[in-house]
Amino acid sequence: MSRAGSSAAAIEAAHRRGDGALIAYLPVGFPSVETSIRAGKVLADAGVDVVELGFPYSDPGMDGPTIQRATVAALEHGTHLEDLLHAVDELTAHGLSTVSMTYWNPIEWYGVERFAHDFAAVGGSGLVTPDLPPEEGAQWEHAASDNDLEAIYLVAPSSPEHRLRLIAEHSRGWVYAASTMGVTGARARVDEHARALVERTRAAGAERVCVGLGVSTADQARDIAGFADGVIVGSALVKTLFEEDTDRALRNLEDLATALVSGVRGASWRRG
């Protein structure tokens, strides 16, 4: 199988099929590095468009309790940035477009230009950087541009219009729209805020906007794919990997991923 291309290209390919794009989050190193790679390949074979590999960090301010538990375990196993690069290499060679969500300190420690070069060399598409604002992102943006990587910034329902414009201007690939409104199951309220955020972010100049909402069902994925460029699913997938029997965990992951993929099939919003 040929090495995968950018996540933006994978999102566009899903739209050409008439599908919503499904982006699946997995923490690299949980429950082990090799099992997280196996999990990524399961997602690819189930039809997921992009995998977002989370790099474990000791102070994960944006992550919920499920992902925090997984990343703490990954840290306890001694997961390093070299393990992330290994996982990206394996998954992009398997044909899965791969981005990474990482807090900024590990990249700065590794060396920004060095990381951009090494990440691109293994086929990585780009970074989601939750604690790096565009006002402080010049070094990363230059390194990303030099290595043809995506720079993916985050917006929230509380983001004012001027900030949405700034993030749209500085993002490359797509914008991550994060919503904390409501709870799982309170879909009507969550969709209302998410849809408005997507519309505001597009109006501010963003070419693509993908939504992370704690989605856990095919119906929820279909609803969001009706107005967003991509649907990001994290905790629901990660929960399946807490099963002690690895083979059973991967079967459960496959079942959920297959259901989510069925939800976004034929659900792509139409431009114009």
Q: What kind of oligomer do you see?
A: single chain
Order of helices and strands: HEHEHHEHHEHEEHEHEHEHH
Percent strand equals 5-15%
Distinct helical segment count: 12
Gross morphology: globular
Mean pLDDT: 89
Poorly predicted sequence stretches spanning 5 or more consecutive residues = 181-189
In angstroms, what separates the terminal alpha carbons? 35 Å
Question: Considering the protein shown, what is the CATH homologous superfamily?
Answer: Aldolase class I
CA gyration radius, whole angstroms: 17 Å
| Total domain units | 1
Strand count, sense and barrel status of the largest sheet are:
9 strands, parallel
Secondary structure blueprint with pairings:
Elements: H1 7-16, E1 21-27, H2 33-46, E2 50-54, H3 65-76, H4 81-93, E3 97-101, H5 104-110, H6 112-121, E4 126-128, H7 138-146, E5 150-152, E6 154-155, H8 161-170, E7 175-178, H9 187-203, E8 209-212, H10 218-225, E9 230-233, H11 235-240, H12 246-264
Parallel strand pairs: 1-2, 1-9, 2-3, 3-4, 4-5, 6-7, 7-8, 8-9
Helix pairs in contact: 2-4, 2-12, 6-7, 10-12
